[in-house]
Amino acid sequence: METPRIAVAVVTMGNRPAEVDALLRSVAKQDAAPARTVIVGNGCPLPEFARRLSLPGEVTTVELEENLGCPGGRNAALARLREFGDVDVVVELDDDGLLVDADVLRRVGELYAGDERLGIVGFRIADELGRPSSGTCPASGSRIHCAAGTSPGSSAAGTRCG
After folding, report:
1. Domain limits for position 126
2. From edge to edge, which strands make up the β-sheet containing 58-64?
């Protein structure tokens, strides 16, 4: 399989603007840019991100009138991406995470390209010093490292579309 087209989905309640900016900057620094980024305001208005942060690819914002919770916000992002119909894998990121390494999206793409049966890739959550998180609820500013397999409690996941 050739390298899949990757999208990034971020859901926020608008209460972590600095963390969202840092996360999106870490997405912009990836050596394999996402084809699309969807940012969902879960019951909140969103600022303009694309030009201000020089985000690569197509950037779409979705403002939900009410907070549908994390699953509802992620479903809204996935629904919008299905409407576009031009991505193969969605990487879901929490609004307080960071992609520490510049090769995370490329590595996710390589994992999917290498195994057509792959459905989910989990991420290792670490603190600001790179130590693995001890709980299932990552702290604000969590760092995301790509790892094969699944990781219960991860704040990010890659999901194959279609």
Report:
1. 6-160
2. 58-64, 36-42, 6-12, 89-94, 156-160, 120-126, 142-146, 97-99
What's the CATH number where 110 sits?
3.90.550.10
DSSP string, 14-75: SS-HHHHHHHHHHHHT-SS--SEEEEEEESS-----HHHHT--SEEEEEEESS--HHHHHHH
Count the alpha carbons within 13 Å of 53 in the hemisphere toward its beta carbon.
23
Which pLDDT score, from 0 to 100, does residue 127 have?
Answer: 73
Q: How far apart are CA 142 and CA 148, in angstroms?
A: 18
Q: What is the DSSP letter of 99?
A: E
Structural domain count of the chain = 1
Express each pLDDT in 92-151 by its tens digit.
999 988 998 999 999 999 999 999 899 888 887 777 677 776 655 444 444 444 444 333
Domain contains 1: no
Cα–Cα nearest to 141, from 102, 92, 105, 95: 95
CA distances, 102 to each of 5, 25, 36, 47, 80 (Å): 17, 11, 17, 25, 26
* Type of residue numbered 125: I
Residue 113 parent element (H or E): helix 104-114
